[in-house]
Amino acid sequence: MWTFLAKNKNDVIYLFLLLFSVAIGPFYRSIKLTNTKKWAGTLIGIIIIFIVSGYSAFHPIFSASLGVILIKLSTVRYCHTVTFFFMFAYLFFFRLADKFGLPLSSGQTNLIQMIIVLRVVGVAFEINGSWKIVGKKKNENTVDAKNEKDNDFVEVINPSLEDLFHYSFNYIGLLTGPYYRYRTFDDYFHLPFSKYVDYSGFTINTLKMVPLYISLYLALSNLWPLEYILTENHNNRSFLYRMMYPWALFAQFRQRIYSGMTLAECVCTAVGLGAYPVEGRNRTGHGPTVGYLKLKQMSEEEAKKVQYDFNTIESMDVWGCETVATLRDSMKVWNKAVQYWVAMVVYKRFPIKPLKVHAALFVSVIWHGIHAGYFFCIYFCPFYLMAEDIYYKLYYKNATGMKKKIMSIVMWFLRSHSESYQAAAFLLLTFDRIWIYYTSMYHYWYGVWLAFLILGLVLNQLNKTSRSKKSVEEASSKKIE
């Protein structure tokens, strides 16, 4: 027991700080004065950074401080671009600190630095995006007539330097997310929703699954350790055993992520951050998507009676992660807050349309780290999706009854196996370790992908030809009639 604790000291401290952040939530929520509340949250956040990072606390504190100063010094037209390149350049420096004669930081400090990047870059894009809407003279209350959704920005966002500082360092979500917009942060202090939401009920309901996730993680990591797949004993096992071993690795990895993300959500629910009335049709990361300006005008009496949710700060749809049939759907329910950030900051704003997906994936990779494993895991997803989309349209999309159930099981298995195979690279990190493992497996899954893709393209072409002939025959029969 003590050996395990000593070996995983940083993880234990990190877990304790997450639990501490959940526990102090009700006390933080009870602070009445807005300015006092902001400074209290910031002070707690900075203390947590020092506990986790020690001397390495310099990195997140310095980069965030300089980042928010750059936002205010730059013009609103370019603040997002300047901030983006500075924060990611510093992220590279932070991860290559040993090349400059500085000690490398712990993985836990790296997680904090990653969240700091999301916040500082995200708020810069919020400021620029809201300015663009006003610049185009769009009405702040304009909605999409087709689906009655708000625009991405319905009012000007222009926080002061002090508020940017508070947003960057507030302890809520600082350890491992979730990412939330500056608008959500500002609403927490100025709208009444956090006062009347059943924060304890939401927190307890979310928290009750964490012991299960932690128990499963400890059991799986003990039974199927990562390092075993690089040993000769593993290579002497049957091919089927070696083929399925990544399932155990990815399962334990998922339990670890579920634990951290669920506790991070509990930090938010314990203070009431991210609570909005359900009528806002709230979306992860974004918040209300319908009638936001109307919600802002809600009185205290109305706020007492409405129903709330915490969809805005939901990072993981655990049930969806375990059960969805396709990789495309799996990507939508995995780490949803970061997915939202990548979509809003990179995908929607990248100027070259054919390269939008590649830009989003590239930024996602370098945000995670500079190791080869992240490229192998994340950047190979589109190649699997190309094949998956073909079979989805041919056999799954319009299927019904037993055929739909069978196809769902088949696609779920293939999706899960693909994710597990890629997750092995994500966990092994370095190219040499990945190459040793993939070589021992003859790189078989890439061959399977390619075969599925070629076969899918052939079947898709045959299907198009068949439909074309059928259309011609039907047209001919109509003429004869």
From TrEMBL:
<feature type="transmembrane region" description="Helical">
    <location>
        <begin position="12"/>
        <end position="31"/>
    </location>
</feature>
<dbReference type="InterPro" id="IPR049941">
    <property type="entry name" value="LPLAT_7/PORCN-like"/>
</dbReference>
<feature type="transmembrane region" description="Helical">
    <location>
        <begin position="78"/>
        <end position="97"/>
    </location>
</feature>
<feature type="transmembrane region" description="Helical">
    <location>
        <begin position="109"/>
        <end position="128"/>
    </location>
</feature>
<comment type="pathway">
    <text>Lipid metabolism; phospholipid metabolism.</text>
</comment>
<dbReference type="InterPro" id="IPR004299">
    <property type="entry name" value="MBOAT_fam"/>
</dbReference>
<keyword id="KW-0812">Transmembrane</keyword>
<dbReference type="Pfam" id="PF03062">
    <property type="entry name" value="MBOAT"/>
</dbReference>
<feature type="transmembrane region" description="Helical">
    <location>
        <begin position="444"/>
        <end position="462"/>
    </location>
</feature>
<comment type="similarity">
    <text>Belongs to the membrane-bound acyltransferase family.</text>
</comment>
<protein>
    <recommendedName>
        <fullName>Lysophospholipid acyltransferase 7</fullName>
    </recommendedName>
</protein>
<keyword id="KW-0472">Membrane</keyword>
<keyword id="KW-0012">Acyltransferase</keyword>
<keyword id="KW-1133">Transmembrane helix</keyword>
<feature type="transmembrane region" description="Helical">
    <location>
        <begin position="43"/>
        <end position="71"/>
    </location>
</feature>
<feature type="transmembrane region" description="Helical">
    <location>
        <begin position="359"/>
        <end position="385"/>
    </location>
</feature>
<comment type="pathway">
    <text>Phospholipid metabolism.</text>
</comment>
<keyword id="KW-0808">Transferase</keyword>
